[in-house]
Design brief:
The chain is mostly beta strands and 1001 residues long. It has nine domains: 98 residues, Immunoglobulins (Immunoglobulin-like, Sandwich), CATH 2.60.40.10; 98 residues, Immunoglobulins (Immunoglobulin-like); 94 residues, Sandwich (Immunoglobulin-like), CATH 2.60.40; 83 residues, Immunoglobulin-like (Sandwich), CATH 2.60.40; 73 residues, Immunoglobulin-like (Sandwich), CATH 2.60.40.10; 95 residues, Immunoglobulin-like (Sandwich); 94 residues, Immunoglobulins (Immunoglobulin-like), CATH 2.60.40; 90 residues, Immunoglobulins (Immunoglobulin-like, Sandwich); and more. Strands 1, 30, 33, 34, 37, 38 and 41 form a seven-stranded mixed sheet that branches. Strands 3, 6, 7, 10, 11, 12 and 15 form a seven-stranded mixed sheet that branches. Strands 13, 16, 19, 20 and 21 form a five-stranded mixed sheet that branches. β85 and β86 form a beta hairpin. It comes from Takifugu rubripes (Japanese pufferfish). Keywords: Cell adhesion, Cell membrane, Disulfide bond, Glycoprotein, GPI-anchor, Immunoglobulin domain, Lipoprotein, Membrane, Repeat, Signal.
Length: 1001
C-alpha cells in the first residue's frame, strides 16, 4: 500500500519506520505573575514556563499582547527551551498578556493566556489633615484616601500612637473597600488622633497617612436618631464560582444600630455562612449558583430602621465538557468536530489552526455553536486545530490534530464476500468497498471476462455490483478491480443462485370449538442445499414455544413448520403467521383462526321498573363467539341470600333474541342485584356485571311469627314469646308486631302493639291474673303499608306461684367416701295452682357457708338422688326444696351426714402370675389401709382381652385368684382393693400373652 502523508516533513520518518510521530501537546503552560515593583532594583527577572511533548520535538515562540515577540522587543527577552525569561524588567514596557506557541511538523498550538502585572504602593502625601469636630452621640466618618497603588490592600487605623490600633466592634468599623473608619456613635473616649495604615498584600509594604484629630464640640450632646447606612455594598455584584464574597454594611446612629442580614427571597443561609460573624461584613465562602440572589442589610435601633439591598449574580469561566479528538481522514472525506463548554455567561467559541484564528472564508469550512465542519478535505487542511471557548471571565483551550491522507486502493480490510447467495428471480448485491483516497475507478470481471453493464447488471456509484432478476447463468466468480493514481487492487467472490422457497399451504380460515386441539399447517418447497427456519407469530407477536401455558407445540418435520394448539381457548382466536427464512429469501403466510365458544357476558344490565314482587330488566348481548345465543338466564342476589340464585321470569324461558324479561316472586322491600348469563349450543358463558342495587316496593307483611309460646315470669304476668320475622319478610319500613290474648272462655281479645322489628317478647301484667291461668294467644304483624294476618291461636299459661310446702322425711346416707344418697317424701304433683316440676337438693360442708352450697336438681316426682364427687371423712349439711317455673319453695329441715373414710390409696404390690393348663394364677401382697383410710374388705380383678374391649370384674377377699385364659388372644389385667369408702388405687396393667396351641402328631 502506498500512503501519501500530510507533508514532506514527516513522511520520510513514517516510511523509514523511525520513532513514533506525535503532534505537540502542552505538559506545562504559563501562569500569571504579579511582580512587586519594590524588588526591581534587587532582582529584575521573571520566567514564564512552557513545555510541550511531540515528535519531532516542538519549537517555541511567544506572543505579547497578541504580537509575536521578535528581536525588535530587545535582548532582555530570552527563550530557554520553551521558557521565556524576561530580564531588566520595565513595568511600563513588560506588563501585558503572554502566550506560548509550540510547533512541530504536525502544526502549531497556542497556550492559555498569562498576565504579567506589577504591584506597588506609593507614600501618602505628607500634607496635614484638618481636625474633625463632632458632638458626643453623633456618628462620624474618618477618610483614609489611600495613595496610588497596584495590588490588593489591607487597612487598619492607629489611635493616638503605635502600637494602639482601633478595635472593631458594633460601634466602630473599618471598611476594607475604602479604608475609611466609621464610628456609629462618638463617645468622649474616642477623642484623639487617628492614622490610616495601608498594607500591600503582594509587596508586603506598609505606609501611614497623616493623623486626623477627632475633637468633641462643646455645644451639647447629640440626641437619638434613626440609623443612617454609610457603608453600602454595590447594587449589582458579580461573583465567580468557588470564590469568597464579602459584603460590607455599617450604619451611624444613636443608639448604636444593630446590623442584620437576610435574603429577600426568604431562603435561609446555608451552613457554610457563619452568621455569628456577620455584623458589618457578610462572608459567603465557596460561592455557588444557589447562593445567587438579592441580599439585604438591615440597620435598626430604637429610633427606626434602614435597609440597603444588592444583587449577587453568579458567573463561571468556561470549562470544556466536549473536546475534539485527533482524527485521520481520507482526501475528499468530511470532518465534524464538536466543542462544548459550560460557563456563565454562556461561552462563545472560536477556532484556531496552527496558532492563528480560523476564519470560515470558504463554503466548505463552517463554524456553528462551537462545532467545526470541513467538507471535501484536502491535504492543505492538515494541521493542529484548537477550540477556544471564552466569556468575559476567561478562556478554555482544547487541541486536536487533523491528518488528511492519500491511499492507493486496498482490500485488506474489506474483501469481497467469499460467497453471495441469491434466489432465482431475485436481486443480488455484491458489495465492493476498497479503501482508497482519492476515490478512483471501479470495474468488474466475471471469470476472466470484463463485465459489461446492461438493463439487468449495473455498477453502482460506490463500486458495488447490482444484478436484477438473477438466473442460474449469473452464477460464477466475480472480481472487483479498483484503481486511482497511486495504484490498483482487486478482490474476488462467488455468486450462487438458489431455487426460491415456496409455501405450498394456501392461506385459509380455520374453525374450531373451545377445548379442542388443531394443527396449523405450513408446508414448503425449497432448495435442498439451504436450511429452513420457521417462525410463528400470533397477532404479530412472536410465539415462544415452551411458554404461553404450553398451548403451542411444534409438530412439523424438516420441510414443514406445522404447529399444534392444544385445548384451544377463546383468546387463541386471531391471525397466525408462519414465516419461513433461508439465507437467500424469506416468505410468510397468514391463517385466520376462528374459535367458537360460549357467549361472552351480556352488558348494560338495567332495572327498567321495579315494584313489590316483580322487576323489569333489559340488557345488551355480549359477543356470541361465533355461535348464536339461544337463551338467557337471570340470577339475583340480596343481602339475605347465599350468593347468586336463579329467579323465576316471564317468559319462563328467555330466548336468545330477547333482551328484556320480567323477574317475579321477589320479596317486597328488599335490595336486589341482577345479572344475566347467555348460553348457546356450546355452553353457558360468564355472567354479566351486576346491575345497580334496586329495592322492591313495600307492601303489608304476610309472614306471621313462628313458635309462639311463653309462660313463666313473675306473679300476675302473662309472658308471650315468638321468633323474630327476618328482615327479608318484613315487606317495608315501620315493621312491628300485634299481640292479641284472652283468658280461656272469654270472647273478646285484648291487643297490644310491639313497634320493634327485633322484639321477640311481650309481657302483660295485671294483678287480677290468677297463677297458672290458661290464655288464648295469637301474634300478628304490621308495617307502614298496613296490617298483616295473625298467626294461629295457641294456649299459654300465666306465671305460676312457687311451691308453698317443703318436702318431709329427708334422709341422708353415705354410700362411700365420694357418694351420698339423699331421699325424701314427695309433695303432690299439682296442688291447686302451685305445680311441682322437681326437687332441688342443696349441700355444703361444715367449712362452707350455706349461701355457697352446691345444687343438684331432679325432674318429676323422683324421691331420691345420689350426690357424687364429695370428699371423704367430711360432714355435709343437706336440705331439699320443691321448684317450678316461679322458683323454689321453702326448704326442708336440714340433715347432716359424714362420708366414709377414703378408700385405700396404696395399689396392690408384687403382682405375680403363672400359667397352667390354660389357666392363669395371680398372687399379690395384701394392701394395708392407712389410719385415715377405710379398711380393705376385698379386691377387684379387672381383666379384658384387649385395650378396646369392656373389662370383666371378679371380686375376692383373698390375695390370689385363678382365671381361665383363652389361647387366641392376650389378656390385660389390673387389680385394685376396695372397702366401704369405695375402690382404691389400681395396680399397673399386666399383659399376659396368649398360650401357643400345641398340635398333637
Amino acid at each position: 500500500m502506498l500512503t501519501v502523508g500530510l507533508c514532506d516533513r514527516w513522511l520520510p520518518s513514517l516510511q523509514a519506520g523511525s520513532s513514533v510521530l506525535q503532534s505537540p501537546v502542552f505538559t506545562k503552560q504559563p501562569g500569571s505573575i504579579v511582580y512587586p515593583v519594590e524588588t526591581l532594583e534587587r532582582n529584575k527577572e521573571v520566567v514564564f514556563s512552557c513545555e510541550a511533548q511531540g515528535s519531532p520535538p516542538p519549537s517555541y515562540r511567544w506572543k505579547l499582547n497578541g504580537t509575536e515577540i521578535s528581536s525588535k522587543y530587545g535582548s532582555h527577552y530570552i527563550l530557554s527551551g520553551g521558557n521565556l525569561r524576561i530580564s531588566r524588567l520595565n513595568k511600563d514596557q513588560d506588563a501585558g498578556t503572554y502566550q506560548c506557541l509550540a510547533s512541530n511538523s504536525f502544526g502549531t498550538i497556542v497556550s492559555r493566556e498569562a498576565s504579567l502585572t506589577f504591584a506597588y504602593l506609593e507614600n501618602f502625601k505628607t500634607q496635614r489633615r484638618s481636625s474633625v469636630s463632632v458632638r458626643e452621640g453623633q456618628g462620624v466618618v474618618l477618610l483614609c484616601g489611600p495613595p496610588p497603588h497596584s495590588g490588593d490592600l489591607v487597612f487598619s487605623w492607629i489611635f493616638n500612637e503605635y502600637p494602639t490600633f482601633v478595635k472593631q466592634d458594633t460601634r466602630r468599623f473599618i471598611s476594607q473597600e475604602t479604608g475609611n473608619l466609621y464610628i456609629a456613635k462618638v463617645e468622649p473616649s474616642d477623642v484623639g488622633n487617628y492614622t490610616c495604615v495601608v498594607t500591600n498584600t503582594v509587596t508586603k509594604t506598609r505606609v501611614q497617612g497623616p493623623p486626623t484629630p477627632l475633637v468633641l464640640r462643646s455645644d451639647g450632646v447629640m440626641g437619638e436618631y434613626e440609623p443612617k447606612i454609610e457603608v453600602q455594598f454595590p447594587e449589582f455584584v458579580h461573583v465567580a464560582k468557588g470564590s469568597t464574597v464579602k459584603l460590607e454594611c455599617f450604619a451611624l446612629g444613636n443608639p448604636v444600630p444593630s446590623i442584620n442580614w437576610r435574603r429577600v427571597d426568604g431562603v435561609s443561609f446555608s451552613r457554610k455562612v457563619d452568621t455569628r460573624k456577620a455584623s458589618g461584613v457578610l462572608e459567603i465562602p465557596y460561592f455557588q449558583q444557589e447562593d445567587a440572589g438579592t441580599y439585604e442589610c438591615v440597620a435598626e435601633n430604637s429610633r427606626g430602621m434602614n435597609t440597603v439591598k444588592g444583587k449577587l449574580s453568579f458567573y463561571a469561566p468556561p470549562q470544556l465538557i466536549e473536546k475534539p479528538r485527533d482524527v485521520q481522514k481520507l482526501i475528499d472525506d468530511s470532518l465534524v468536530w464538536e466543542c462544548k463548554a459550560t460557563g456563565k455567561p454562556k461561552p462563545s467559541y472560536r477556532w484556531m489552526k496552527n496558532g492563528e484564528n480560523l476564519e470560515p472564508s470558504e463554503e466548505r469550512i463552517q463554524v456553528a455553536n462551537g462545532a467545526l465542519s470541513i467538507s471535501r478535505l484536502t491535504l492543505s487542511d492538515t494541521g493542529m486545530y484548537q477550540c477556544v471557548a471564552g466569556n468575559k471571565h476567561g478562556e478554555a483551550y482544547s487541541n486536536a490534530e487533523l491528518r488528511v491522507i492519500a491511499v492507493a486502493p486496498d482490500f485488506s480490510q474489506n474483501q469481497l464476500k467469499s460467497q453471495t447467495l441469491v434466489k432465482a428471480g431475485g436481486d443480488a448485491l455484491i458489495e465492493c468497498k476498497p479503501k482508497m483516497s482519492p476515490w478512483g475507478v471501479v470495474s468488474w470481471r466475471k471469470g476472466s471476462d470484463p463485465l459489461r453493464e446492461s438493463n439487468r447488471i449495473s455498477i453502482l456509484a460506490n463500486g458495488s455490483l447490482r444484478i436484477w432478476n438473477a438466473t442460474k447463468s449469473d452464477a460464477g466468480l466475480y472480481t472487483c478491480i479498483a484503481r486511482n493514481q497511486f495504484g490498483v487492487a482487486s478482490s474476488t467472490g462467488t455468486l450462487s443462485v438458489k431455487e426460491p422457497t415456496i409455501i405450498t399451504t394456501p392461506p385459509s380460515t380455520l374453525d374450531v370449538t373451545v377445548g379442542e386441539s388443531m394443527v396449523l399447517p405450513c408446508q414448503v418447497s425449497h432448495d435442498p442445499s439451504l436450511e429452513l427456519k420457521f417462525t410463528w407469530f400470533f397477532n404479530e407477536q412472536l410465539i415462544h414455544f415452551g411458554s404461553h401455558g404450553g398451548f403451542f407445540e411444534k409438530v412439523g418435520g424438516h420441510s414443514a413448520g406445522d404447529i399444534m394448539i392444544r385445548n384451544i381457548q377463546l383468546r387463541h382466536a386471531g391471525k397466525y403467521t408462519c414465516a419461513v427464512q433461508t439465507k437467500v429469501d424469506s416468505i410468510s403466510i397468514a391463517l385466520d383462526l376462528i374459535v367458537r365458544g360460549p357467549p361472552g357476558p351480556p352488558t348494560s344490565v338495567h332495572v327498567e321498573e321495579i315494584i313489590d314482587t316483580t322487576a323489569s330488566l333489559s340488557w345488551r348481548p355480549g359477543p356470541d363467539n361465533h355461535s348464536p345465543i339461544t337463551a338467557y338466564t337471570i340470577q339475583a342476589r340480596t343481602p339475605f341470600s347465599l350468593g347468586w340464585q336463579a329467579v323465576t321470569t316471564v317468559p319462563e324461558v328467555v330466548a336468545g333474541h330477547q333482551l328484556r324479561a320480567t323477574v317475579t316472586e321477589l320479596s317486597p322491600w328488599v335490595e336486589y342485584e341482577f345479572r344475566v348469563l347467555a348460553s348457546n349450543t356450546i355452553g353457558t358463558g360468564e355472567p354479566s356485571k351486576p346491575s345497580k342495587q334496586a329495592r322492591t316496593k313495600g307492601t303489608y307483611p304476610k309472614v306471621t311469627p313462628a313458635n309462639v309460646s311463653g309462660g313463666g315470669g313473675s306473679r300476675s304476668e302473662l309472658v308471650i314469646t315468638w321468633e323474630v320475622i327476618p328482615e327479608e319478610f318484613q315487606n317495608g319500613p315501620g315493621f312491628g308486631y300485634v299481640v292479641a290474648f284472652r283468658p280461656h272462655g272469654a270472647t273478646g281479645w285484648m291487643q297490644a302493639a310491639v313497634p320493634s322489628a327485633e322484639a321477640s317478647r311481650y309481657v302483660f301484667k295485671n294483678e287480677s291474673i290468677q297463677p297458672f291461668s290458661p290464655f288464648h294467644v295469637k301474634v300478628g304483624v304490621y308495617n307502614n303499608e298496613g296490617e298483616g294476618p295473625f298467626g294461629p291461636v295457641t294456649t299459654i299459661y300465666s306465671a305460676e306461684e312457687e311451691p308453698g310446702r317443703a318436702p318431709t322425711r329427708v334422709r341422708a346416707k353415705s354410700l362411700s367416701a365420694s357418694e351420698i344418697e339423699v331421699s325424701w317424701k314427695a309433695l303432690p304433683w299439682s296442688v291447686s295452682k302451685r305445680r311441682v316440676l322437681g326437687f332441688e337438693v342443696r349441700y355444703w360442708s361444715r367449712s362452707e357457708k350455706e349461701d355457697m352450697a352446691s345444687v343438684q336438681r331432679t325432674v318429676g316426682n323422683q324421691t331420691s338422688t345420689v350426690i357424687r364427687g364429695v370428699k371423704g371423712s367430711t360432714t355435709y349439711y343437706i336440705s331439699v326444696r320443691a321448684y317450678n317455673t316461679a322458683g323454689t319453695g321453702p326448704p326442708s329441715n336440714t340433715v347432716n351426714v359424714t362420708t366414709k373414710k377414703p378408700p385405700p390409696s396404696q395399689p396392690p404390690a408384687k403382682v405375680m402370675w403363672n400359667t397352667s393348663d390354660s389357666k392363669i394364677i395371680l398372687n399379690w401382697e395384701r394392701v394395708k389401709a392407712l389410719e385415715n383410710e377405710s379398711e380393705v374388705t376385698g379386691y377387684k380383678v379387672l381383666y379384658k382381652k384387649n385395650r378396646h374391649s369392656h373389662p370383666n370384674v371378679m371380686e375376692t377377699n383373698t390375695t390370689s385368684v385363678e382365671l381361665a385364659l383363652p389361647t387366641d388372644e392376650d389378656y390385660i389385667i389390673q387389680i385394685k382393693p376396695f372397702g366401704e369408702g369405695g375402690d382404691g388405687s389400681s395396680s399397673k396393667q399386666i399383659t399376659i400373652p396368649r398360650i401357643p396351641v400345641t398340635v398333637a402328631l
